[in-house]
Amino acid sequence: MAGCSEGPHGLLSGQDMVKHHTESYEVNAQFNKLVSLEDFDETRKADLERMKEQLRCLLSQERVNKTESLSEGVWESEHRRIRLTRVEGKWQSYGYEDSTGKYVECYEGLFLMEMNRLMVKWNGVVVSIEQGYSLLLGHPGSLTLEEYQVYSTLIRSGYYVLRYECGRKYCTTNLDDVPPAEERCVWGNLYEMLNQPNPRKDKYPKQEDGKLYETVRRSMQRYGKLIRNPAAKSEESTDEPTSKKLRPDNVSASEDHSDGFSRIEHFRRMFDRFDVVHSLNEEGRWLERTVDPPEENDLRPVFDLFATESQTFKKSFPPLPIARIIVRRSSQRMLHFRELHRMYQQQEQTPVPLMLMLVSDNLSVHCFLYDMKRVQRNVIALTDENATRAASSSFARMNRPS
């Protein structure tokens, strides 16, 4: 077989196999944009012919792979799905299985065909990729060309993508959402200093280490001391006796309280001055003043997007998606924020950010992410003045040098 370029049954020789895997087929598209026909000289004509020849050579290359590594399937036109007759490799994020066999959706089958992982037959004849685009896309219940382009782009980038389903159940118990132990200790100490119940205590079952808790407590006291006594003052008082550096015990706590609350009031006024863009509320009252955009019946999420770090991803029971994708052509009108906000509120279970992806005529994709999660104003609520003064007094005594 070394002397011939092709063996029996379409098998390549060893020399052709090595040549196929070592050669690179790229189109050197170094061609300046034409402004007028007068600039189309002989040099540009030669460059254009060279690019055409390189592109023709690239498209004419045969897809070579080991037969044992290819999965096989049969196209069932009556059900518009691909039934797998031979499965090779990992399929945890593709297809589904029922009592009649294993199947893949149309868009999944087309993508696997493009990746040279699946060979589909229809009436005993192998379906080409060109036939797959017309056979598997653009029909009722299947994806459009723009939607498939988004799906293919995200999958090639390493994301997990599933078609959006209203009744899908998600695995919401993720250990990665639990904050670190040091962060839990900081919040625990802070609520204790303010004499308030810690709502995070029962939320996370993991208990904090007592030694780490005390270490964080001392660290917070030290930083509180540095905040109350700036470094400049400490440097100026380095020449003073040690007795003068110590704070006298007869200083009234009310002076510290008044000074602390005046600072709080000062910062409150400052933040109120910058509070121009208000956060969204549950009722969406400010949206009532906007003009209603024209309604579209086909406005819906198309895909669920999952993070690439989901090593234990299962299509039957996936984790909560990081975004839900809306696909539109760039020639269509841009969606109003009110429409996106309504879609965000109508999500079942836990709302996730919306990702609007616009596909242009040349199939380039542009992405816009909308995260409408409401940001709470006060992480820690100050109950009343007396309780706050008592908490501030204990915090002042805690930070007072001995």
Automatic annotation (TrEMBL):
It comes from Anopheles arabiensis (Mosquito). Residues 233-258 have a biased composition (Basic and acidic residues). It comes from the Eukaryota. One of its GO terms (biological process) is tRNA-type intron splice site recognition and cleavage. The keyword tRNA processing applies. InterPro entries: tRNA_splic_suSen54 (IPR024337), tRNA_splic_suSen54_N (IPR024336). GO terms for cellular component: tRNA-intron endonuclease complex. It holds the Pfam family tRNA_int_end_N2. Keywords: tRNA processing. The keyword tRNA processing applies. This is tRNA-splicing endonuclease subunit Sen54 N-terminal domain-containing protein. Belongs to the SEN54 family. Residues 58-122 form the tRNA-splicing endonuclease subunit Sen54 N-terminal domain. Residues 227-258 are annotated as: Disordered.
